[in-house]
């Protein structure tokens, strides 16, 4: 029996989903760009490092939203002879770039916060609180827009976390502004800046880890390869599954290749049934694209996989 090689492609994510992503991202860009300009101007005018730090953080978030928009645009470009998968991977690279940009921001603001700790400046606390209060409204509303999409895409999750973190930081800035106005505790300004940096690091760390792993073709976090292999081997007629490789084609789509050892004699109808059942299994495990190389035990031996192919049979209880 010769090797059956099949490539099963499933429908891409609906265009409407990408359109929804773009709409909320554009709205987030416009709202936050306006706020960044106001916050940065007032922060420089009032010599408030906490406002300038938060404006810098918000600016990086705006840039990350723009990068995500570009990535989603590239996602829709059709594959060609040079890029047979298209430009899906740009969504992963965008998420990684966003995380790196935020880490650079942490370093720059941290250095300035240390200087301000040594030489605090008098600040108009009430004005700081008013501007930060506007930030709570804008960032909170933007986070609300992204909330429904955070579990469907890594870039949208990153955007949601950034906006939520910004809203929480704005709450802290409001409180510090009121305390500075009431008690003259101007040292709170750089302290709040450090709090901003801590929030950025916490919200960015998981995004950095996941985007770096996916950019290196690591297994996506929501895919358990061992559980996936076990479920595939439970399909009737499958003796063993090996050489399983899973990677992310984009932040929305995962892919798999695997060698599937089947019984020696299979009809065309039976082979088709097995492939359809395997497709159903991988869809349940968050994988949208797959390539199965169907093998018999003899074929596996030719490829040097005798021990692997026989493992399932030898470990199974003997028939009565």
TrEMBL record:
Provide the Gene Ontology terms for cellular component: plasma membrane
Residue intervals of the Cation efflux protein cytoplasmic domain? 220-288
What's its membrane topology? Multi-pass membrane protein
Q: Which SUPFAM superfamilies match?
A: Cation efflux protein cytoplasmic domain-like, Cation efflux protein transmembrane domain-like
Localization, per the record, is: Membrane
Where does the sequence pass through the membrane?
A: 24-47, 59-78, 90-109, 121-147, 159-185, 191-208
In the record, the note on similarity to other proteins reads: Belongs to the cation diffusion facilitator (CDF) transporter (TC 2.A.4) family. SLC30A subfamily.
The lineage's top-level taxon is Bacteria
Outline the extent of the Cation efflux protein transmembrane domain: 25-213
Q: InterPro entries per the record?
A: Cation_efflux (IPR002524), Cation_efflux_CTD (IPR027470), Cation_efflux_CTD_sf (IPR036837), Cation_efflux_TM (IPR058533), Cation_efflux_TMD_sf (IPR027469), CDF/SLC30A (IPR050681)
- What does the record give under GO molecular function? zinc ion transmembrane transporter activity
In Swiss-Prot or TrEMBL terms, this protein is called Cobalt-zinc-cadmium efflux system protein
Q: Which PANTHER family match?
A: CATION EFFLUX PROTEIN/ ZINC TRANSPORTER, RE54080P-RELATED
Identify the keywords attached in UniProt to this record, alphabetized: Ion transport, Membrane, Transmembrane, Transmembrane helix, Transport, Zinc, Zinc transport
């Amino acid at each position: 029996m010769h090797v059956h090689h099949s490539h099963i492609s499933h429908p891409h994510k609906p265009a409407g989903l990408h359109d929804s992503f773009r709409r909320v991202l554009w709205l987030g860009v416009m709202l936050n760009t306006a706020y960044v300009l106001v916050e940065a101007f007032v922060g420089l005018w009032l010599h408030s490092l906490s406002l300038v730090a938060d404006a810098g953080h918000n600016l990086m978030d705006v840039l990350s939203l723009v990068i995500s928009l570009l990535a989603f645009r590239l996602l829709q470009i059709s594959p060609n002879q040079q890029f047979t998968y298209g430009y899906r991977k740009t969504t992963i690279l965008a998420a990684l770039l966003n995380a790196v940009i935020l880490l650079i921001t942490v370093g720059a603001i941290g250095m300035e916060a240390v200087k301000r700790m040594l030489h605090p400046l008098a600040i108009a606390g009430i004005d700081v609180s008013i501007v930060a209060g506007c930030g709570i409204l804008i960032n909170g509303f933007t986070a609300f827009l992204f909330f429904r999409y955070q579990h469907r895409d890594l870039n949208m999750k990153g955007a949601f976390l950034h906006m939520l973190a910004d809203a929480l930081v704005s709450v802290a800035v409001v409180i510090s502004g009121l305390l500075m106005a009431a008690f003259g505790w101007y040292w709170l300004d750089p302290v709040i800046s450090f709090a901003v940096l801590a929030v950025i690091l916490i919200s960015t760390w998981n995004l950095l880890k996941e985007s770096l792993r996916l950019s290196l073709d690591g297994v996506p976090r929501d895919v358990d390869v061992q559980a996936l292999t076990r479920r595939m081997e439970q399909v009737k007629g499958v003796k063993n599954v090996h050489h399983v490789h899973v990677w992310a084609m984009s932040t929305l789509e995962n892919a798999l290749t695997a060698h599937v050892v089947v019984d020696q004699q299979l009809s065309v109808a039976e082979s088709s049934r097995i492939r359809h059942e395997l497709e159903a299994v991988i869809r349940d495990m968050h994988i949208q694209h797959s390539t199965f190389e169907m093998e018999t035990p003899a074929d596996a031996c030719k490829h040097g996989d005798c021990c692997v192919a026989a493992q399932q049979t030898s470990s199974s209880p003997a028939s009565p």
